[in-house]
Amino acid sequence: MRMTVIGTGYLGAVHAACMADLGHDVLGVDVDEAKLAALAAGRTPFYEPGLPEILARTVASGNLRFSTSLEEAADFGEVHFLCVGTPQQPGSAAADMRPIDSVIEGLAPHLRDDCLVVGKSTVPVGTSDRLAARIAELAPVGARAEVAWNPEFLSESTAVEDTLRPDRIVVGVTSHRAEAVLGAVYSTMRESGTPYLVTDRTTAELVKVSANAFLATKVSFVNAMAEVCEATGGDVTTLAKAIGYDPRIGHRFLAAGVGFGGGCLPKDIRAFSARADELGFGDSLRFLRDVDEINMRARQRTVDRARTMLDGRFLGRRVAVLGAAFKSGSDDVRDSPALAVAASIQLQGAHVRVHDPEALDNARAAFPCLDYAREPEKACEGADLVLHLTDWAEYRDLNPAELAGVVDVPRLLDARNTLDLEHWRTHGWDVGALGRGNLAA
Ligand SMILES: NC(=O)c1ccc[n+]([C@@H]2O[C@H](COP(=O)([O-])OP(=O)(O)OC[C@H]3O[C@@H](n4cnc5c(N)ncnc54)[C@H](O)[C@@H]3O)[C@@H](O)[C@H]2O)c1
Ligand SMILES: O=c1ccn([C@@H]2O[C@H](COP(=O)(O)OP(=O)(O)O[C@H]3O[C@H](CO)[C@@H](O)[C@H](O)[C@H]3O)[C@@H](O)[C@H]2O)c(=O)[nH]1
């Protein structure tokens, strides 16, 4: 099937390459010419495990091509996936819909007969109806252009696997024709037994934002329990392990620490709340403000704990930060808790040097005020405190004995709760963590 993928960022580049790998004929479209040039040369503009191989394969086979032209896109395919960004609006909690609106303005006047515009971006409920109405105004007379919504659930770091073998596929449609077209797009997944839910567009939009709201709530729940453990002397890691054995709760998304960040969960819960206020059901989602507050408090608690470990003073101290990406397996630093903490500590007078295996360039562009090192050992040189803020596997393999010889004072705060602190302690380290009130000072 011939299709376009409009917006080739973290979501769109993966979707385009995976669709091409499934045998579809795909045109990726973006406004960012540098990004398109890299993709067309088979180079991934960001770090995503497994993507370079699929991209190289599909570009070489000719199944995947790129363009900046929406007119060319309209002419190219019968299905158009919208994958552009919906970031938080500056100065508001709501989603910025300008990228999507501008795509519709550019695409709709050129749409061919019988095409399907399929939203994958995460949007405020009601968007698909609004876009369908606008397309009806702009599309050539007689063009039967429809809108469907097909939310995306991939996570960065496992995006390729999540796209090729998703937990479920949800399509929101208003006709049998749209249902049949999307059924053909996803025939491989359907044949392999992936749960496939066909629904109305509104429900499809809501499935996406409610899934992210639930995930955010789960992380904030465990971070609230971390606060309780700190106040009472409990251990949140054991607590999470114990409650997670109940299959109704489950272990995933119960890792307490510095909280959630990234280009999705924080902005999506805010946009959901803002939309609820707009539509008059804000009270139903009031709890999401607590979820957001608990999450922001996790960053502040990390800063406070670091200050306490440094005897109440950041000024003139050297702090090594392990991790800049919002999570391991990604180079994405959008709303990264690690960088928020690092910058706050720097602003309070410490000299902060950050290491990350993949996200250094993005981190430097976002926070040029921080100092950076290409090796963890370099970041730790002369440090009064080492802060573990992104849970890269390689940090679990660090040698505490060797690192003790590099730092000024062997002091470690594990704000991800994934390091073996007893092991570090046996090598002379003074250790701290979040939510582990039972850790003897
Ligand atoms: N990143 C994820 O893991 C993920 C997963 C599921 C859903 N989503 C949703 O998908 C959407 C995209 O997210 P992302 O992380 O890929 O963002 P991103 O910023 O990485 O990518 C967005 C892309 O859209 C391009 N773009 C912006 N305006 C454009 C225009 N007018 N025409 C063509 N291209 C344009 C940008 O240049 C960029 O390459 C968001 O709504 C997000 O919430 C993201
Ligand atoms: O137990 C946990 C799990 C996650 N996190 C943090 O939560 C954030 C988000 O992690 P994750 O959800 O794995 O990453 P994303 O790539 O942002 O994916 C989320 O956002 C995407 C965009 O909407 C959705 O498609 C995915 O389903 C949803 O998981 C990161 O900062 C993680 O470090 C925790 O602090 N504790």
From TrEMBL:
Its EC number is 1.1.1.22. Residues 320-421 form the UDP-glucose/GDP-mannose dehydrogenase C-terminal domain. It holds the Pfam family UDPG_MGDP_dh_N. It comes from the Bacteria. SUPFAM superfamilies: 6-phosphogluconate dehydrogenase C-terminal domain-like (SSF48179), NAD(P)-binding Rossmann-fold domains (SSF51735), UDP-glucose/GDP-mannose dehydrogenase C-terminal domain (SSF52413). The keyword DNA-binding does not apply. InterPro entries: 6-PGluconate_DH-like_C_sf, NAD(P)-bd_dom_sf, UDP-Glc/GDP-Man, UDP-Glc/GDP-Man_DH_C, UDP-Glc/GDP-Man_DH_C_sf, UDP-Glc/GDP-Man_DH_dimer, UDP-Glc/GDP-Man_DH_N, UDPglc_DH_bac. Keywords: NAD, Oxidoreductase. It catalyses: UDP-alpha-D-glucose + 2 NAD(+) + H2O = UDP-alpha-D-glucuronate + 2 NADH + 3 H(+). The lineage of its organism: Bacteria, Bacillati, Actinomycetota, Actinomycetes, Pseudonocardiales. Gene3D superfamilies: Cytochrome c1, transmembrane anchor, C-terminal, NAD(P)-binding Rossmann-like Domain. This is UDP-glucose 6-dehydrogenase. Pathway: Nucleotide-sugar biosynthesis; UDP-alpha-D-glucuronate biosynthesis; UDP-alpha-D-glucuronate from UDP-alpha-D-glucose: step 1/1. The keyword Transport does not apply. Belongs to the UDP-glucose/GDP-mannose dehydrogenase family. NCBIfam families: NDP-sugDHase (TIGR03026).
